[in-house]
Amino acid sequence: MLIGVFHPQDPFAVMPKERVEAILAEAARQEVRLVFFNESGIDLEQQTVQGLTSGGSGEWQEAVFPFPTAVMNIRPWGPRKRTPKELVFRKMVPFTAFLIGDKWEVTRLLSGSAELSGHLVPTLLLKQVETIEELLLEHDKLVLKPASGSRGDGVQALTRSGDVFVLQNGTSRKEMSREELTHYIAGFKKDFLIQPYIRCLTSGGEPFDFRILVQRNGAGEWTVPLIYPRIGQADTITSNVSVGGRTELLEAFLARELPAGRYSLPKQLHDLGLAIAEAVNSHYAFPLNELGIDLAVDNQCRIWFYEANTCPGTLNHEAERAVLAIAYAKYVGTENLKTREAPLRQESGRVTAGLLFDAPPALTELEPYAGVAASLGMPLSYFLYEDIRFRASTIAAHVQEGQEWVRRNIPFPDVVYNLIQQDHKEDVSRLHSSTHHLFLTSTEPKGPIPSSLFMALASREPRLLERVPAYMSPDEAEEARLFIDRHGSVVMKSGGLSEEEETLFIKRLPTHYEVRDSEFVHHFNNADFAVFLGLFQEAGYVLIQQIDSRISGGHPLHLRVYLMKDQQNVWRLMQITPLLALAPLEQPDNPPVIVDWDWLLFREFGDASGEDMDLLIQELAVHTAQVVEASNHRRFHELVVDFALDKDRKLWLLGAEFDGSQDVVHPYDVARIVLPYAKSRIQNPS
């Protein structure tokens, strides 16, 4: 098996020599070949990478290889820095590493867990000096740290003596007045967190914590291969090895420093590390490969959670880390091959199907599926997300017995069609984890394709390129301003690591800029607008030329095309839904209404031209689905494609999302496509 080791610029520059040597040695033991490459070595058209492999005796050889079956992406960049080439490559080949939110987001996620919230250090976003003063009334020492920092960078301690505040960074200290501290906080360019200082010191006064390395193994399951103490220098506040700390063997350290917990703490740390990894990953729709979880133990033997790090440093433990890193990469590659080349499941006898709902369905919704399933000889069940028992591979489902739906405990069906709505409030990200055996008709999570990725995919196809509005991902505020000035009206799509996008509408007016969000309208002069654009640099954003899409008469128009794959594995049209706004878009409370597609065609084009437009939008939508599918290593069979229609009656691509048509198409029409598709995919994967 060929596994890639990738970084956009240079994988060797972001890995210590010890890690390179460790993964090479472990790859040889597990009979895996590694190819090290950067973005310049990727050829999307030929589906090859040019990179370096080890010859086995220390020399490196450069060669061209087919796309790896999986990629170990080292120190991944966030969405803002990814180029169109990397965005497309990530959909074509599965990666092992993903990013999560910052320390503040992770803290908020874990605070909702009854099991874990008691281990969280009370934490606040630092916005003003009054927050510090309030906390110092209860605690004699505080810690300030950047929400997005790593390796101990920027972590500081704060104490107060009378009217003087003392800020400690490493071993250095600086005294400040209240006014100076206020000015210092106002100068922060990023979010900072503030929390009480947890006294976790060795008998020699050295700060320490415990690093729990949690990794997925060769079966895709979480495990803890390493727990070790990290000990910082005396009179400092961090224990990071990268800034002068050291590590020791766990047993010897506990015997010397925490003898009361010598035998109980290892299991407590192990179990808590696993629980935190499970809880963090449950909030993301992708499987994390590893987390470095930092826990502290105070003098009362109470365990506190500090932070969870993706891509953690393990300077003195590279060989141990490499074992599961290679094993999991093999697992990801193997699962990728199964998805591409194998049926969902090979079973003798009848294929069983399940319907997954977010609320108990009405009988009128079930009957079409039941009728189609009966005609195909497919036993059918339905259930809710909370009915699934992932560990036991069973479901408390409703199955049809005669004319009744009876609740039964059943094994996982052969295939499941997910009808949960995108806006369902319950977290269902575990559905798309590769660590269970619930087989979905689509392994791609529902939701919009990030705009930067969609535009990059469409721009690679000449047939679609002419339908893509002008767009850019600016590096500087001035670059963005020039783009906005050139096009007059643009859409800004911004997003963080999770790539959940916020949409803003920006218009260049003669004397100022107008920015509209879902609730408010803002007006900026040139100077204020530059500051506004600068606020989005960290989140990253893409600017897209706004197409003035209207019908004759001036009503704003949006076209949605719903597609599904049939039992021949061919994309087919399910519905074209025109959405018409009855008032200008600028007016609040202006929800669009659905109008009939045939009526709109006749009104705008007449008979002959209307037929041509109907064929064109179908052709473009199907081609878009094919392009997205060809660049995606995950399986999906439903897509919604969005179009605009300008004053010259030209169609423009606006975006796409992974979702079904059950909200706009009769359940029978969905059932007669999706159930034969599911059955054919199991029995005949080609």
From TrEMBL:
Keywords: ATP-binding, Nucleotide-binding. InterPro entries: ATP-grasp, YheC/D. Residues 113-337 form the ATP-grasp domain. This is ATP-grasp domain-containing protein. PROSITE patterns: ATP_GRASP. Coiled coil: none annotated. It comes from the Bacteria. It comes from Paenibacillus phytohabitans.
